[in-house]
Specification:
By secondary structure, this protein is α/β, with parallel strands linked by helices. The chain is built from 11 helices and 9 strands. The strands form 2 sheets. A 5-stranded parallel beta sheet has the order 7-6-5-8-9. A 4-stranded parallel beta sheet has the order 2-1-3-4, sandwiched between helices. Strand 5, helix 6 and strand 6 form a beta-alpha-beta unit. The longest helix has 21 residues. The two termini are 17 Å apart. The relative contact order is 0.17. Keywords: Pyrimidine biosynthesis, Transferase.
């Protein structure tokens, strides 16, 4: 695997391979020595043009656990604020020695731009581009759900997809790169996806997606999904009134205590974070025993270790070196 730009580009076999390698990374990091020499001598540059906490720190931890050197670049306070282009910034990082560039950018397609031009030779990992894609978030979500379903069945998750699983994704679909990447990955892995949102926050292109669509959250919950994934309302991307009021949004599309109580036994609550408590999700749901929000964060390190391993150490299932 040369780059990771979008889950839409992955085959089922490739997706399962990443998840399986992440499983081995999880098992390995549970040991006393948590660092491995797999990427020793290689350099990973985190190129973040947008603010991030979970994704940036997770990629840093993943690279360091594989013994890579890490360069973290933030656009704020850098030459970007003086007008430096994406091309010049990327070429500067490669000249310093970057073998892989993890990029988060506000413009959709920025990661593809780096990967598909002859500007640089480094491997590119998309850490979120505009409203387009966030593949590692979708992979860690699938990893979390796959583990949960396997535990219920008392089986190993290795080699498994998500065949037959029902997932409801609720909230600001319009502005969510997480939703888009999850839709394609979950479909590839065999899950049934239902999207729930106000009409104003459902993209027109959804008609071409492999999903069911409804504006009624309670109707979606009545189908007894295995997982309910709440999305953050991205106010920073909104330049108009997309819903009447925060209280109205919470009443109709929030995971309230009452809706949480109506979920089927064994179903889990997910959220990519950061959470707007009291808006899209109540504290009762966020902190409940069936909440897997922190599990998702933990899974992020293992999944990103697997991705960096594949783009830098070669496309192989032999993870004994890790």
């Amino acid at each position: 695997m040369r780059h990771l730009l979008d889950t839409k580009d992955l085959s089922r076999e490739e997706a399962i391979q990443i998840l399986d390698i992440a499983e081995s990374m999880t098992d390995a990091t549970g040991k006393e020595i948590k660092k491995f020499p797999t990427l020793r001598g290689l350099t990973v540059a985190n190129l973040f043009f947008e603010d991030s906490t979970r994704t940036r720190i997770s990629f840093e931890a993943a690279a360091k656990r594989l013994s890579a050197d890490v360069i973290t670049f933030s656009a704020k306070g850098s030459s970007v604020s003086k007008g430096e282009s994406l091309k010049d910034t990327a070429q500067t990082l490669e000249a310093i020695g970057a073998d892989a560039i993890v990029i988060r950018h506000g413009s959709s397609g920025a990661a593809y731009r780096l990967a598909e031009t002859d500007w640089i030779d480094a491997a590119i990992v998309n850490a979120g581009d505009g409203t387009h894609a966030h593949p590692t978030q979708a992979l860690l979500d699938a990893f979390t759900l796959r583990r949960e379903l396997a535990a219920i069945k008392g089986e190993s998750s290795l080699g498994q997809g998500l065949d037959g699983a029902k997932v409801v994704i609720v909230g600001d679909i319009l502005h969510s790169r997480v939703a888009r990447s999850n839709v394609w990955l979950l479909n590839i892995l065999g899950a049934e996806v239902t999207l729930v949102a106000p009409p104003t926050l459902m993209p027109h292109s959804v008609q071409g997606w492999p999903v069911k669509v409804t504006h009624d959250f309670d109707e979606a919950l009545a189908t007894e999904p295995d997982a309910v994934m709440m999305l953050r309302v991205q106010a920073e991307r909104m330049h108009g009134a997309f819903f009447p009021s925060p209280s109205e949004y919470s009443r109709r599309w929030g995971l309230t205590p009452a809706r949480h109580a109506s979920m089927k036994p064994g179903a889990i609550v997910m959220h990519p974070g950061p959470m707007n408590r009291g808006l899209e999700i109540s504290s009762v749901a966020a902190d409940a025993p069936n909440s897997r929000v922190l599990n998702q964060v933990s899974a992020g390190v293992a999944v990103r270790m697997a991705v960096l391993y594949l783009v830098l150490a070669g496309d192989t299932t032999d993870t004994q070196k890790a």
